[in-house]
Amino acid sequence: MSRLSPAVAIVDDHPVVLAGARAWFGAAGITVTAAGGDLRIAWNPDGLRADVVVVDLQLADTHVSWDALGDLVTAGRRVVVYTMRDDRETALRCLDAGCATFLTKAEGEEHLVAAVHAAAQDLPYVPPALAGAMSANDASDRPRLTDREQEVLLAWFQCESKQLVAARCNLSPRTVEGYIDRVRVRYARAGRPASTKAALVARALQDGLIHLDDL
Predict the structure, then answer these.
(1) pTM, rounded to two decimals
(2) Which residues contact 21 (CB under 8 A, 6 or more apart)?
(3) Domains along the chain with CATH numbers
């Protein structure tokens, strides 16, 4: 379980970015357990203490591989991508890899700090660049959900528990669980798994099943 004040590991090879991020996180009460320009810091003892790993995709003229990001996600790490890249394809690819969210460095302190707090609590966070990428997404691998599945899914995003969803939708908690499980299965079959609530919110936003105003 994440701490009230989360801890973060920063993977970035630009000294100015590292110094700035350390200052921003310190002012926000976020502890930096490890920082440096090599992805291996996320796996060292100090890096493993972090609730969230902030990763720049470009390190020393080398692009961090999607497999490397996937390894972090598979290991249960919450990954926030913070990069100079601002193209839609990269943003959506990061979501498909299971990252908690995607930010451009132009979005700065406010969004980076908010993204780390959200990721540490497994909550969705959609900064402007990612919102733009999602709204422009025209992928053909969107699962088809029934109206009732969409209704339950939106209620779950807006409620703190499945028991509250059950009361709102006049269903049993077990039935609510069944609807949500079916949605997860549909995404998994489409090759776009969403194992956490935050990931499922990101998928639904990306596919136009819900909108930011709904949240």
Answers:
(1) 0.70
(2) 10, 12, 32, 35, 54, 82, 112
(3) 7-135 (3.40.50.2300), 147-214 (1.10.10)
